[in-house]
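ping. complex inputs:
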Amino acid sequence: MDPAYIKPFIASIQNVFATMLQMPVTTGEPRLKTDRGAENDISGIIGLSGAVRGSVVLSFPTQTAERVVAIFAGQSLQVGTADFADAVGELVNMISGGAKALFPGNAKASISCPSVVIGQNHTLARQSDIPCIVIPCTTDCGPLTIEIALKVGEDQPVAKAAVPARANA
Amino acid sequence: MRILLVDDSKTMRNIQKAVLTQLGHTDLQEACDGQDALSKAVAFKPELMLVDWNMPVMDGLTFVKTYRAQVSKTTPIIMVTTEAEKSRVIEAIKAGVNNYVVKPFTPDMLSQRISETMAKFAASQPAPTSA
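pong. complex structure:
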């Protein structure tokens, strides 16, 4: 996958957490996801369609999600409630929306309404022809991951030299 | 000031409510999509609306167009959305939006946009004539 379509998600998650939670996010080395199992217990999922299509998953261990949601929503919310899921969904919505505005060449994409899956060992099925990149992140609330599975239309811009994304210092 | 908050995310509505309450605005109503907002706006007669774009049932852009055509051409509307591309901002302004806030936002950002919008609205109103 072209790193030019991954870097916007790194920038966006850092922007969302800095702005709404006043918290830095440190991103680690991206890796290719080779299995269908969820990275963590809570997945906020958004679909993209248009010139760039696929899905983005914001994945949290339960404890991280509880802490993040408490700060974001301004109150502790019980895992599994509609309000908790709404908060997770809104986070992945903002991250994806912010990222798509940074796609190279103003590549157009529409984002779906978010879905949230809560439960240990859940599986997320994706289109088999779209590779998924996992970016591990660390925050003051704990670790989380962002999974990006995107396919770019043939007429969309591609970075001239594909270089691996670097971890933040 | 009567303010209608239109967003399918309850979390986002609560965040906006917290900012508005801190600014001293307590006459607030909420709607969870454009269709809900249309019926509530007719009854509540808001003096300001904060409207999300991507919502189920009726999205924010369709709501703004419908509201401007059927209810009021002048009530100030601020779009509060993740849609950040210039083309989307232009589309929203053409539909009748008065100002635009891109999510994520700080309380100060939202507060500033509200002040700007209401100041411009006040300046656009005809001066009262003396008796």
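The domain at 3-151 of chain A is CATH 3.40.1550.10 (Chemotaxis protein chec).
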